[in-house]
Amino acid sequence: MAGAPLFASSDARTLDRIRKGDEGALVELYRDNRAPVRALITRNSGTEADADDMLQEALVTLWERVRTGRFRYQARLGTFIYATARNTWLRRLARARRETTWTAADPPSDDASPLELMVEEEEADIVRSALERLGEPCRKLLLLFYWEEESMESIAAQTGMANADTVKSKKYQCKKALEALIRERMPRHG
Amino acid sequence: MADEAGRHFASDEEILSRYVLGRLDGNERAVIDNHAAVCDTCREALRREMELAAGVRRLGRENLKKELRRRIAEDSSPGLRVRALSAAAAVCIVAGLGVYYAFFRRAEILPQDAGRAPALANRTESFAQGRADEPASRIDQKTAPEKSAETLRGAGIQSGAKMKQSALPGEQDRAGGAKRESPAADITAPAHASGDISSEPSGEFWSEGIVESPGAVSGAAPAPSGFAAQKKDLAPPAGNPARVDDRLMKEEQKAQADETDHLKGAYRRSRGEYLIRQKPASTLPSERAGRDQSRVPTRVDQRGNRTTMTMYLDSLVDEKDLQNAQVDAASGDSVVVTVGGKKILYRFPSGQAAEQRQK
Description:
A: Rna Polymerase Sigma Factor, Chain: A; B: 7 strands
């Protein structure tokens, strides 16, 4: 990275740590970005607790994108985090005001995946609470598959299953068990 | 895989997963979308898969946020901060001592090298004279560098004169208005003296006293004299921010244990005289403004056996309290001033702290 700005090499190291699953990188980013995000949120009707929550949301979004290979480095990490926290906060304010439309200047594009935008928050909450009632092996397997987006081979290695086919089969069973739990709360599901 | 004819994919786990994980290319995705638009069963299967994936991701995000909060709390806990600061302070002290021995002690021990550190010559001379009345039995217990220093001092004043002579080039530089360039000068100044010692040829310098927390001194009696008693008194309650300073002092004392051991005798004999003065903080020189509120900026003027300390205080203490002020040695280069029920720790640039007090 000869000739690259200083922050670029620093960001590259941070991204590399996230790719390797080092959560300590998020703590450092939290420390580095706390002041500007706090200033932003508290200037815009929020409290310091709101600001910390937005910053944590932004860091988790960064983590998710980097770990799933969907992060594209277009600006320094601090800029990404600031913009994501800002958009998340604007969306929360809009929700509080029961606004459903967005102006062109404030697109809800940075912090939520298309999938999350397509699924109603309430429905996702029902699935999440059903997951908590699911047994640990199934919960772990589904988290590895849908959250960490690990391959079947990798999941097999991490869970001690024989091979990828075993994981596929177990995943199917877990999905069915989860859907049964969801149906209890959301009859139209399935 | 759904083809152009619109094959059903409702029971195709792989297609559903690849769709929600974004692993289909544009064409494949378009085929799925087109089919879902006309097939209720497949559209519903796709929707369920998306709900499931969104719910799992939400749980994943929440888990990560919890972990992040835990780590942040851990990272910012006072205990850890204190440990980190103490470790950093210990490193600084050890490094400082190394430099001290490399330059200052070297200048003291080897008269022929004194010219390399002219700024310290006066301090070294004063230090030597302060110990001249030490009994012979004490000298026998000294470490090798101490013995060398004693050898250097020989007939006492004479060796000091030699050192002063060696320092002349530096003095001449100052007389000519040139800035002193002594490698040891800046290094031996404590951190909170901001290196001012290097620009103070007359033995004047700034120091910043660290005020012991009010809780730790409530109803405090005047500080007892003596090194050991002073150490005990300065220990604030656990969790108090002042603990950092206390730890720093203890670390320093530990690191300097060998030196401090034989310096104590010198303190007892030096009987230095301290003059404590006060001024309103509003009269501080502009370059000293904006200080840390927990510190007391103090002008220190050391001349011979007398040290004048002018404290710049936000609230002036009673004249009576000032007259009853007490100064006690805390370590090799630290003194504690007790005034108006408060204890203020100072670190001086060299081992000239004296045990006794004065009004």
